[in-house]
Amino acid sequence: MKRTLAVVALMLFCAMALSGCTMIKGLERDVQVVLEVDGSIVGCEMVNIFNNAVIAEPDAPGGKLFLGWTTQEAWNEADAETVPLIANKGLVRFDDIQSVLRNDVHSVVLRAVFVPAPQRDLVIAWYNKEGTSGLNQEYMDSFRTRLDEFLRHEGYQPENMDILIRGYEGGVGDTCAAITKDADVDITVGWSNTDNLTGTGGWKEGVDFIENVGGITIGAKERFTARLTDTELSLKVYAWIQDTYGSTVAKAD
């Protein structure tokens, strides 16, 4: 009798389990997510309530930043920053697209949203890897003091200018990729020669940077400085860096 009850209980449990699986399966709804960048399809993923999709961030056009992905069909560039975006740049969840789904829809297009990079007066990137570049925050603070003195001598008011000196950490490839992604750097200091930038860094001369000059000692090591833009201020400061920190300059301090 006890064995019979046990068998019946097991059968009921299995039936409930199968029923539960059927119900869960019924809840699944595979949705094809199409990724569109500047009007071109660059990928396709499948998501449902149990499975997310990991997606790569697209490369932004020159001078622009990638904000994220949207289900909105169209927008003006001036209004791009107000476009509703899904929660993550590199992950798509069913909840992100559920609001635009109708009963007969099994495909959704996510479009990449780009905005112009902030227009600052000057951005200088430094390689925040002291063992390699010989640079640290103390050296860069001194550099900023001397830069401000130079700009005042040239008739500028640096206290009223948007000047940013930004450190980048990591390997050469990662830092070069980050600089490209930020899309606002005018000059770099502390990296290595052109072969290193184009090889390990993945940059292309004439596209990602205009020139790269060695013999520059801002910190504890002699390194290179690269120019990425052609603005009047960028050209002037780039020449000042070479005149002030170049290998032919007598180092009084």
Can you offer a commentary on this structure?
With 253 residues, this protein is an alpha/beta fold. It has helices spanning 2-27, 94-97, 130-133, 137-153, 172-182, 194-198, 232-245, and strands spanning 31-37, 40-47, 53-54, 64-70, 91-92, 107-116, 122-127, 163-168, 187-191, 211-216, 223-227. The protein is elongated and about 70 Å long. The termini are far apart.
In short:
The protein is of the alpha/beta class.
Can you tag this structure with a few keywords?
253 residues, disordered N terminus, alpha/beta, 7 helices, 4-stranded mixed β-sheet, single chain, elongated, 5-stranded mixed β-sheet
Task: Output the radius of gyration.
Answer: 27 Å
Shape: elongated
**Average of pLDDT:** 88
Give the % helix: 25-40%
Order of helices and strands: HEEEEEHEEHHEHEHEEH
Residue share in β-strands? 25-35%
Instruction: List unreliable stretches of 5+ residues.
Output: 2-27
Strand order of the largest sheet: 8-7-9-11-10
Structural class by SSE content = alpha/beta
User: What is the number of helical segments per DSSP (H or I, 4+ residues)?
Assistant: 7
Distance between the termini: 98 Å
Number of strands: 11
Helix and strand arrangement:
Blueprint: H1 2-27, E1 31-37, E2 40-47, E3 53-54, E4 64-70, E5 91-92, H2 94-97, E6 107-116, E7 122-127, H3 130-133, H4 137-153, E8 163-168, H5 172-182, E9 187-191, H6 194-198, E10 211-216, E11 223-227, H7 232-245
Parallel strand pairs: 1-6, 7-8, 7-9
Antiparallel strand pairs: 1-2, 3-5, 4-6, 9-11, 10-11
